[in-house]
Amino acid sequence: MAKIVKRKDLAAEVVLMELEAPEIAKKRKPGQFIILRVNEQGERIPLTIADSDPDAGTITIIFQVVGKTTMQLRDLHEGDKIADLAGPLGTATHIKNFGTAVAIGGGVGTAVIYPIAKGLKEAGNNLISIIGARTKNLLILTDEMEKISNRLIVATDDGSFGVNGFVTDVLKQIIDEGIKPDIIYAIGPLPMMKAVANATRPLGIKTIVSLNPIMIDGTGMCGGCRVTVNNQTKFACVDGPEFDAHQVDFDNLGQRLKVYNHQEKESCKIFG
């Protein structure tokens, strides 16, 4: 069991938790994730490890409340325990000094991009970060991203903070300034990642996205997290979760993500 040592609301239905997980804290690398069960009857869900403290033996997760399991997780408090968690899982992010790197986070995807951006900065990259949300009160980790970035640009769909527009608008602005990134990492809602891929493909800018399909065991055995990349079937849990954005079949992934929408809605109604 994993004890919750810290719980904090970051935004509307976005929660940060620090969990006791000393072995995972020692081994985790940027880009990796855990799979947890809230209780013995619960489903298994993947969550990115946003940060860790090996000395304290803790890992940090940040999640958005979107279904029954995250509703159950939201309702836990400091001192409560989670039934079990496994990790670190997935292939760690390939980090080196590329030159100029752009880290793009949309919505709760900022929690996923944060450890990657931190690693890129520590590797010596000139780090330009772009984070966005629908409105100001949904932005997360703004201060943390600013501390690790050479330049941070924030965008909101409604213009309530920062640039009025999408993260893709900001990316276009940067490129129009004459800056050609050596690599881009973009993580957020599926339409956002697809839009970034479409914007960078004609320019030949290497772009990496992190995919979060339906996932069960996290070891490549169930096949539930299969995605189509370069016309081949890949398992996000062991082959990813990061892939070349220009090779991802986003339309196929979007269809698969909707498969259990009805059952999830019914489950939330019963739980609520």
Compute the separation of the termini in Å: 25 Å
Major β-sheet strand ordering: 6-1-2-5-4-3-7
User: Can you count the beta strands?
Assistant: 16
What share of the residues lie within helices?
A: 25-40%
| Model regions low in confidence, pLDDT < 50 over at least 5 residues | none
CATH architecture of the largest domain, by name, is: 3-Layer(aba) Sandwich
**Biggest sheet details:** 7 strands, antiparallel
CATH homologous superfamily of the largest domain, by name?
Answer: Nucleotide-binding domain of ferredoxin-NADP reductase (FNR) module
Q: Helix count, per DSSP?
A: 8
Q: Report the top-level CATH class of the largest domain.
A: Alpha Beta
- Give the integer mean of the pLDDT values: 94
> How many separate structural domains?
2
What is the CATH T-level topology of the largest domain?
Rossmann fold
